[in-house]
Amino acid sequence: MSYRSIIVNLTVDADPVPIVKLAAGLAERFDAHLIGLAAADVPPLVRTGEGLVYEGEVMQIQRTEIEKRLAELRGEFERLVPSAVSSEWMQQVCSPTRLLSIAARAVDLIVTGGGEGGNVFRAVDVGSLALGSGRPVFVAADNVEHVLAMTVLVAWRDAREARRAIADALPFLSKANEVVVATIEGDADDSVRNSLADVAVYLEHHGIMARTKILTGEAKAERLVAFARSIRADLIVSGTYGHSRLQEWAFGGITRTLLRESGINRLMSY
């Protein structure tokens, strides 16, 4: 298994250099086609200090500014991607989350920066993307230009999302020097140990030798990140746990923490 097509999201208000270099490196590693994408939208209403709403000319000015920035990002993408990497470009004045979710149907892996929150008209909502795109989402650490993924931590719980995440991460896991499958449990009974053992066997069938670890502690999310740092993992693989209520995403504690964590690369699946 490999990633044969990768899409990378360039945020209009961020420096594109780190994320493009990172994605191009992944495309080279997996011999994948790389799609660069950038989008931003004009807010439907523009309010002044007096509370008035202007449309027309003001919105057209904003649209023109967005189009200019998208053209700049295209130039940077085409300059930074090596000629040996097969690539193409997509851009549109629209919701970046919506465009990336649609484009994701034609790729194996989504690469993006950022985390939770932000201006949804100018930046991707990573949580919504992870839950709605149907593709694994690689969330890059801040300002990282290269991903080694030599030590990978798999955050395990016996649930559909974690199983999907492990399968989605096999290309990374197969190239890692060390894979650690860890779970956080207050009471580590036989069922927990058996589930970890089954995951290790599954990975072994794919030629991946992994060790398992049971972590204890109350602050589960923080304990997981601390353990990742202790083993010098530069990639955490995790299921995305959440649901939609009234069109707003609600997340579990570990997912929220990983969305906010900016110091370690994350691969998230739902």
Question: Can you walk me through this structure?
Answer:
- A hairpin with a 2-residue loop joins strand 12 (242-245) and strand 13.
- The chain has helices at residues 17-30, 57-80, 96-103, 126-132, 160-168, 170-175, 190-205, 220-230, 253-260, and strands spanning 5-10, 33-40, 46-47, 53-54, 87-93, 109-112, 137-139, 151-155, 178-184, 210-215, 235-239, 242-245, 248-251, 265-269.
- Strands 5-2-1-6-7-14-11-8-9-10 form a ten-stranded mixed β-sheet, sandwiched between helices.
- It is α/β, with parallel strands linked by helices.
- The relative contact order is 0.15.
Helix fraction, binned, reads 25-40%
Question: Which strand order does the major sheet show?
Answer: 5-2-1-6-7-14-11-8-9-10
Query: What's the gyration radius in Å?
Result: 20 Å
Number of helices: 9
Largest sheet: 10 strands, mixed
User: SSE order in H/E notation?
Assistant: EHEEEHEHEHEEHHEHEHEEEHE
Residue-averaged pLDDT: 91
Question: Which regions contain 5 or more consecutive residues with pLDDT less than 50?
Answer: none
Distance between the termini: 19 Å
Q: Shape, please?
A: globular
Q: What class, by secondary structure content?
A: alpha/beta
Tell me what portion of residues adopts beta-strand conformation: 25-35%
Number of strands: 14
Brief rundown of the structure:
This protein is α/β, with parallel strands linked by helices. It has helices at 17-30, 57-80, 96-103, 126-132, 160-168, 170-175, 190-205, 220-230, 253-260; strands at 5-10, 33-40, 46-47, 53-54, 87-93, 109-112, 137-139, 151-155, 178-184, 210-215, 235-239, 242-245, 248-251, 265-269.
